[in-house]
User: Fold this.
Amino acid sequence: MSLDLADEEPPESDDGAWLSCIECGNAIAPFEDVIYRCPDCEGLLEVRYADYPTFESFSGEGVWRYADALPVEREVTIEEGATPLYEVPRLEDELGVASLRVKHEGMNPTGSFKDRGMTVGVGVASRLGVDRLACASTGNTSAALAAYGGRAGMETLVLLPAGKVAAGKIAQASLHGARILEVDDNFDTCLDIVQDLAARGEAYLLNSLNPFRLEGQKTIGFEILERHREDYGEFPDRIVLPVGNAGNTAALYKCFRELVRSGSLDEGEVPKLTGVQAEGAAPMVEAVENGWSEVKRWEEVETRATAIRIGNPVNAPKALPGIRATDGTAVAVSDAEITDAQRALAGEGVGVEPASAASVAGLRKLRENGVVESDERVVCLTTGHLLKDPDAAAEAGVEPESVPGDTEGVLEHLAE
Ligand code: F0G
Assistant:
């Protein structure tokens, strides 16, 4: 499998960027019609460029540092990106790898990586002149869409699985002014409905099926590679990340291929993409383990990590080849393992929501079974902030203790 991008002819009305079908190579002008899939074969679309970025072409801070690799100009922004790449020395020691860093995407404006996709996706929506934006969401996408839609002055509609979205995320979507439609079914059904609404022209779809959103998320990869090389003089051997719809996995793979294409990254230097799912929602892991070329949809899904409670990873046709071409893998972890990892991260000051901790739980498992070796430099991606899911945090954390309202009483309690 190639780590380079295919040579393709741009469409006639070429803007320097165009859309290409990953199945049939159909090249389509990007801003003439609203389009999410190939009109000929229904394949997923990817953005292509006349020129691909080099590290030297980047300047500035945050997502828009990478403007040369993005399809629109900086327009709808709340200063997303430029997230920390934390050292976690105790976890690094415990897991026994050459180095371990945590890319904490929870440090974005709305507390998740979705902001990177929205600054680009809502920018495209504005260029297309649409007036209503919509997404299905396990929570974070809805929070980000509500914020960026509000910023751009557009109406936003979010469809959520009722009772399965963490409190912080609903609060965000609500205060940023989205219309919140709660569906009595799971996320995958919400996404089916939103795709229908979009096909009928009722709203502009901003789930990660939208190829422009993944362009913004690609910048996670640029940031990791730049910073890692600055700190260690080399790129990481492996990036471990939680997988839901597999949008990030697809976006990172695209980042690597663009850099290979521009000659900025050798094929041998591409990090191994390693996806982690919760055991109760692991269709990608099933496909990787069985060597399938397609993912089978799981109708029933359950996990405490509600952000990745997804049975039909729509970006699998982009992400599976990425995992295979980079010699990566995928692994499933239990809810108990996720909670342990969430506590371990929090113990080093890194507060993440359960789905994010899946990356560290997955790494731990892959160290135990010897798939990840001790000489590897690893980056774990943590995708959302602890405060997104305060109930999960409180359950995993220590119990408050009740004490009397005077110093003597407090001292006595502490001495007990
Ligand atoms: N981690 C968090 C915190 C997420 O919110 C999501 C996805 C993922 C990981 C998975 O990322 O889909 O790119 O594989 N959340 C979406 C949402 C589905 O609606 O907020 P992926």
Observations:
- The mean pLDDT is 97.
- The chain has 14 helices and 13 strands.
- The radius of gyration is 21 Å.
- The first strand starts at residue 17 and ends at 21.
